[in-house]
Write a structure and sequence with these properties.
This is LLM class flavin-dependent oxidoreductase. InterPro entries: Bact_Lucif_Oxidored, Luciferase-like_dom, Luciferase-like_sf. It comes from Nocardioides currus. With 338 residues, the protein is an alpha/beta fold. It contains ten helices and 13 strands. It has a single domain, classed as Luciferase-like domain (TIM Barrel). The strands form three sheets. An eight-stranded parallel beta barrel has the order 1-2-3-4-5-6-8-13, surrounded by six helices. A three-stranded antiparallel β-sheet has the order 7-11-10, covered by helices on one side. The chain has a two-stranded parallel sheet with strand order 9-12.
């Protein structure tokens, strides 16, 4: 059994060929797709965060709205770039969204991907020490995790506007248990091990910023194996969770074939990203019975407890809901995921 959700980048463009032409379209459709996915029996609605782009960028209003419109489905991000974040303000926003949803928030965070602008985090008021922006992301994360633990740290005013509880004060609203539902988007095996040491769940996408010459799914499976070994070594008491994302397109209708038929020939790709070799996973596009055979050989998908389906959100809510339904009904049961 696996948890199966969708991951939307929330693209919009004014093109007449797009079903998502404005930011308002992207936000409302993101909510509507989560409602539809919950009705179909999916387990998660996740959203990518990109700044300075025609994509979803401010996750917490969206997550709170999704939480208010749904009752069961997990809601989350994949991922928030911590280089841009004020961790204290983020802890308040995350606590509020989690409480609105009844404790369903699964917050994916990371160092982030290549940006739309040069050093965009500087426009948000963040200046890394010695130019090390990756270290800054981890520093912000360490503060966030402390805030989510809910311990008091701030000296109360002796003459406050409102009465204070005794002792040092924590940020409010605090949502109990959210600290255990933080995920780190790791793009290397070493980062996966660091993620385990910090007591965060592992979120791995269709990109790894390293390449050992083996197929993508095998390299990712090794990443997951190292993560779980490091988790055990760290002595954490709870069971960790691991998610992988995949582009899975069941070719059922003529429309499916028109949009994604050419992706039948998709393979892993190796390229240069930010000066280093990176390996990109392929798109799975085929008839459902062929997908079952292909996905049965994906070692990383087998190792993960959660699968996130990347959806082409500009094709609209109805198309993407049908895509999710086809995976849930035509593919997942044959693989023992349902």
């Amino acid at each position: 059994m696996k948890k199966i959700g969708f991951l939307s980048f929330g693209h919009w463009t004014p093109s007449p060929h797009s079903q998502t032409r404005t930011a308002a379209d992207a936000l409302h459709q993101a909510i509507d797709l989560a409602v539809a996915a919950e009705e179909l029996g999916a387990d998660g609605a996740y959203y990518r965060v990109h700044h300075f782009a025609r994509q979803l960028a401010s996750p917490f209003p969206l997550l709170a709205a999704v939480g208010a419109r749904t009752s069961r489905i997990e809601i989350g991000t994949g991922v928030i770039d911590m280089r841009y974040e004020n961790p204290l303000y983020m802890a308040e926003d995350a606590g509020a969204a989690d409480l609105i949803s009844g404790g369903r928030l699964q917050l994916g965070i990371s160092r982030g991907s290549p940006e739309q602008v040069i050093e965009g985090y500087r426009y948000f008021g963040h200046e890394p020490e010695d130019g090390d922006h990756a270290a800054m992301a981890r520093q912000h994360t360490a503060v966030l995790l402390r805030m989510l633990e809910g311990e008091g740290f701030a000296e109360p005013n002796p003459r406050p506007m409102f009465p204070n509880p005794p002792g040092l004060l924590r940020l409010e609203p605090h949502s109990e248990g959210l600290r255990d539902r933080i995920w780190w988007g790791a793009a290397t095996r070493a980062t996966a091990e660091w993620t385990a040491e910090q007591g965060m769940n592992l979120m791995s996408s269709t990109l790894l910023t390293e390449d050992t010459g083996v197929p993508f799914h095998q390299l990712q499976a090794e990443q997951i194996e190292r993560y779980r070994a490091a988790w055990k070594e760290a002595g954490h008491l709870r069971e960790p969770r691991v998610s992988v994302s995949r582009s899975i397109m069941p070719l059922v209708s003529e429309t499916d074939h028109a949009y994604f038929g050419a992706e039948r020939r998709s393979t892993d790709q190796v390229g240069i990203l930010e000066g280093g070799r990176a390996r990109f996973g392929k798109t799975y596009a085929a008839e459902p019975d062929v997908l079952v055979e292909q996905l049965a050989g994906d070692e990383a998908v087998a190792a993960a407890d959660t699968l996130l389906l990347t959806v082409p959100n500009q094709l609209g809510v109805d198309y993407n809901a049908k895509l999710v339904e086809n995976v849930l009904t035509l593919v997942a049961p044959e693989l023992g995921w349902r």
